[in-house]
Amino acid sequence: MKKSVIVVTALFCLPFFKANADTLLRLKERVPLEKLAAEVLDPASSHFGVYFTPEEIRKVAGPDERTYGTFIHDLKNRGYTIVNEDKTRLFITVRAPKTMTHALMGLDLQSSDLIENIIASGGKHKSRPRLTILSSNGVLKKTPPEQIREIYGFNPIYQSGVTGRGQNIAIATYDGFNIDDVNEYYSKINLDPKPTVNIVDFNGHAALNNESAVETEVDAEFSGQLAPGASIHVFPSSQNSDMGEVQLFTAILDDNRSKIVNYSWGDCEDQVSSAHKADMDKVFARAVAQGVNIFVASGDSGALGCGTSEIVADYPGAVPFIVAVGGTTLNVANSQPNETGWSGSGGGISKLYDLPAWQSGIGAAYVRRSFPDVSFNADPQTGQEAWVQYHSNSSDPYKKMWLTLGGTSIASPQWAGFTALVNEARGAKGSIGFINPIIYGMSPDDRAQVFNDITVGDNSGYTAGPGWDAVTGWGSMKAAPLLGYLVNH
Fold first, then answer.
1. How far, rounded to the nearest angstrom, does the alpha carbon of residue 213 sit from its chain's CA centroid?
2. In this structure, are residues 7 and 105 in contact, taking their beta carbons and an 8 Å threshold?
3. How many other β-carbons are positioned within 10 Å of the β-carbon of residue 450?
4. Which residues pair with 469 in a beta bridge?
């Protein structure tokens, strides 16, 4: 600890300025979080299926008590305000005058015994909502909630009494939103029971942004519509930045109520710095170690993740610790549903991540982490209605309205809602934990019983076909059979 104390002491011999800034420190682990994630997934491990609490992670992976206590004491002693300490003691948010923050960022990390990375506020990386809204004259074939439940096989689940009761779903998002819209949506579609929804502030109060509010409201509405007995906890980050993204997921994992998280935001893989990737890899690995499923919208630009002519994977859709949800076009003709791969469904091959062991065997072309894993209705032409505040054109004021929309960010929250039903149905077995190793480990016969295999369609880089593909993954769920399978595994 001696080196880090000497370095930190030097930082505080600086003039005091009134303008303050927050900085996030990532501390070194004693045991890598990736190792803890591997343990809960390894049938040979004594920790298989036994998930860590944040406090247990702190004891195993966090700094030892003496070293950490000395470090915090020295920070406080010399003028840094400790804004937040995560429960694992691996992330600390500090506040100080900007000049002191600049000095902190100039620290030679090789000379510190404790600090692994320093994350400043701001930065160029911003996540974008994975939502597609057509102009008002678009040709739309709206799919109402009752039809979604019928087509995907949810009704037998509800008839058995399973509604997501006692389950918690976290919505990871940015900026403020209109919580009344969400509650009104539940009432307008006659949900019974109705989900409870609340806001969890963690890095300041997020100011209302009417544009991004649509995304947040859709995520809460569509996850709740399929799990009407669940509690929906919305975590709105006040910062859309590298630091804000780390704080967002750290807050959800510290809270530790929600074993299901929806994240309908993302960026291009090539826009994510190596430092931010390293930070988020730790956070996402921690989620797996805690038994949390993070469902992520795979993107709405097809294989062209940046909306250009270059094939680029989506982030965090390509992260191996999350469940990437792609999109389908849902056609209903003569009461018979049929799905094809939606052209906008994000999918492809990562340049950043190796192929996880559970994904081996998906095809010779897929030598690195490939996505999506599963899919659901997402084409705005066959989209679903949300109750939000929006405007017909930019010159009109925002007002409450039914808005038909699509994008993989309407697909992802519905997988989150489905998983809440699974966790309730498992009862004393507890939450299912990270589902990817389970669904990739199914036999072809079992998979045929629980998934709608999408074999037609493309996303301008890859083509849907029998089995797994980089447009729709394994396909959409046959809800009741898949629930039955997951309850018993």
1. 17
2. no
3. 21
4. 473
Distance CA 326, CA 131 (A): 12
Pairwise CA distance, residues 297 & 35, whole Å? 26
Structure-token match 């950043």, residue found? 352
State the pairing for strand pair 265-268/314-315: antiparallel
CB 4 within 8 A of CB 107: no
DSSP 165: T
- What crossing angle do the helices spanning 210-226 and 408-426 adopt, rounded to 10°? 40
- Give the DSSP per-residue string, 353-365: EEPPGGGTTS-TT
- Which domains are assigned to the chain? 2-28+63-120 (3.30.70), 128-487 (3.40.50.200)
Give the pairing of strands 132-133 and 399-406: antiparallel
Cα 453 to Cα 116: distance, rounded to the nearest angstrom: 44
> In sequence order, what DSSP letters do the residues of 440-455 get, joined into one string?
HTS-HHHHHHHEE---
**240, 175 in Cβ contact below 8 A?**
yes
Sequence-separated (6 or more) residues with CB below 8 Å from residue 445 = none
Q: Mean per-residue pLDDT for 232-254? A: 97
pTM: 0.94
Contact 303, 470 (CB under 8 A): yes
What are the tokens at 73? 């004491």
The string of pLDDT tens digits covering residues 257-288 is 999 999 999 999 999 999 999 999 999 999 99
Angle (nearest 5°) at CA 46 between 43 and 52? 100
Instruction: Return the SS3 of 340.
Output: strand
User: Is the CA virtual torsion 236, 241, 244, 249 positive or negative?
Assistant: positive
Question: First vs last Cα of the chain: how many Å apart?
Answer: 45
Dist. CA 417–CA 424, nearest whole Å: 11
Using an 8 Å Cβ cutoff, are 296 and 408 in contact?
no
Give me 169's structure tokens. 């779903």
Is 90 exceeded by the pLDDT of residue 394? Answer: no
Question: In the numeric block, which tokens belong to residue 398?
Answer: 């925002």
Q: Find all residues with CB under 8 Å of 224, minimum gap 6, and list them.
A: 169, 182, 186, 191, 194, 195, 197, 230, 232, 417
